[in-house]
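FORM 7B: Structural annotation worksheet

SECTION A. Query
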Amino acid sequence: MAGGCAHYPANSFLKECSPHKGYRLKNLGQDNKSDSLLLFLTFSGGGTRAASLAYGVLEELARTEIFLEGRKHSLLDEVDAISSVSGGSFTAAYYGLFGRRIFEDFTSRFLKRNVQRELFEETIPLDNWFRLLSANFGRSDLAAEYYDQLLFEGGTFGDIEARGGPLIFVNATDLTLGTYFTFTQEMFDALCSDVSRFPVARAVAASSAVPLLLSPITLYNYAGSCNYQAPAWVQKTLQEPAVSRRRLQQAVHLKSYMDAQKKPYIHLIDGGIADNLGLRAAVDQMNVKGDIWPSLQYLGWGNIRKVVFILVNAETEPDSQPDQVERTLRSGRVLKSATHIPFSRYNFETVELVKEYFKQWEEEIRSQRCSASKNLARADSTSLELDSCSDIQFYLVEVDFDALPDKLERSYFKGLPTSFYLRPEAVDRLRNVARRILTQSPEFQRLLRDLQ
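SECTION B. Predicted structure
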């Protein structure tokens, strides 16, 4: 009977939807950032291995000084948003809540701590046994409480917003739709819920809820009670489905959240299932209007000249051991290999897709920005300078183990387990190799040259 009383905390109800308020990229405080540079980071999944690699990139960005628009500061200060999944979400969320404090205590509080063992120990007390017997309280709910005590100190997405950035996009996977679910107000608007009051620890627990090992995190759907209207691009895409099949799928999925009778609950699992890089979510947040130039104008980024994505990918080596045996494989071995297939295939395809987007977007921005500048010049009857309107460059900096030339070193890092415990020396090696890969990246060096 006591176990039956346990229940996960419900997400907050939103009485009135306002598309101009809340935890959105549009409302990100930009006072201390350059108008001409847009910098996104994406942190992949992969347990402590991914969290450590992401942390090493933050360390190097903090060391990298640039002189831009009359100010000398670190490249880390220019980060506008971080999109993360699973293990990478721990580093992203902690930085979002506490900023540079991450360099003081995150290593001891998380990276070099045996989180995996402590999570197991949370299930030992008798009162937690009873709670886990409840149909409305699972292992991920218990994990969320532990993460809150360990790291996040009751922090909410409203607390991240109050710091003025960078905005943190924590990504999970909708269990039934199979698509990524991002903890932003745009997504919560459809549920008539307030993400600013949602605990960061629960979002991270959802983002890292590995199927079978951990239970889903559940949200209530209050749709239909806050005067929410789907964005214009959703209506347009549903009316013209032939324009983009990917955009059509996104519109259909968002529309499904608006029917609380058919979908009263949303069950969220590990974000790596839908997008283990967090890259698709970041790109879609930037292209919020469906077309890149209107999106930049809507977000207040019409003066952007350089768009940078730094992709931190802690992908492992595929498991080749099954190829060495004749006997029928056990279920655990099959599950391990089967889950790696979509990660590796989708990672590659996502990166190639984004590269194509960048080429297309460069041309669209040049064309539409210059067209707008010419029209303004005609209206003012002036000889407005138009050279700067075509100045737009995209950079995709990849930080992954494939960049390492040494085969043995590459094998070592790719062979590290996807768990929430690594030996301290492994954590330090990951931090160091992240800094080395980033600084030796030709694309990163191109960016630094262009910023001079």
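SECTION C. Observations
DSSP finds 18 helices and ten strands in the chain. The longest strand covers residues 167-174.

SECTION D. Sign-off
Analyst initials: ____
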